[in-house]
């Protein structure tokens, strides 16, 4: 049997992280995420005796949360929630971005570099050979050019 002090430590250490994971996986539904997070911890505490000393509790909780989410979604799909309507999602989401007043780092790229990046990121991994042919270059050349563009963009502050 796990000691109450140890239970509290595990919950304090991992609850928010597992909740955030469930929250994102369940379409930013606060109540569904709360239910799944609690269920993941219940499963953990009922089966913790089976774990070895070397088992990673964090990893085990993520796997359990994933299984709980799959079961939850099968039984009752989460309601669609708009990110704009969810204050928690706005807190989690990146608050950055570019306004009309600020310049985008992409502004330093010329038209050819922008076209290359758009084509590269719009194509799936298996379609990149076709993208390279469309640009009139080989696949390794496409990868080299994308790498150079990324290095150029990293230099921008």
Automatic annotation (TrEMBL):
Record's keyword annotation contains Membrane: no
Keyword Metal-binding appears in the UniProt entry: no
GO MF term set: DNA binding; sigma factor activity
SUPFAM superfamilies: Homeodomain-like (SSF46689), Sigma2 domain of RNA polymerase sigma factors (SSF88946)
Domain RNA polymerase sigma-70 region: 10-75
Pfam families assigned: Sigma70_r2
Keyword set, alphabetical order: DNA-binding, Sigma factor, Transcription, Transcription regulation
Protein name listed in UniProt: RNA polymerase sigma factor, sigma-70 family
Signal peptide range in chain numbering: none
Organism: Ruminococcus flavefaciens
An individual GO BP term: DNA-templated transcription initiation
């Amino acid at each position: 049997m796990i000691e109450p002090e140890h239970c509290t430590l595990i919950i304090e250490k991992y609850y928010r992280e597992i909740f955030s994971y469930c929250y994102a996986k369940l379409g930013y539904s606060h109540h569904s995420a709360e239910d799944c997070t609690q269920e993941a911890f219940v499963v953990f505490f009922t089966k913790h005796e089976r774990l070895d000393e070397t088992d990673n509790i964090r990893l085990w909780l993520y796997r359990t949360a994933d299984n709980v989410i799959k079961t939850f979604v099968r039984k009752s799909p989460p309601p669609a929630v708009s990110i704009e309507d969810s204050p928690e999602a706005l807190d989690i989401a990146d608050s950055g971005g570019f306004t009309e007043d600020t310049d985008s780092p992409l502004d330093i790229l010329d038209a050819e570099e922008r076209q290359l990046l758009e084509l590269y990121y719009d194509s799936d991994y298996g379609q990149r050979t076709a993208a390279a042919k469309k640009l009139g270059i080989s696949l390794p050349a496409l990868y080299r050019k994308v790498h150079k563009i990324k290095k150029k963009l990293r230099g921008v502050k």
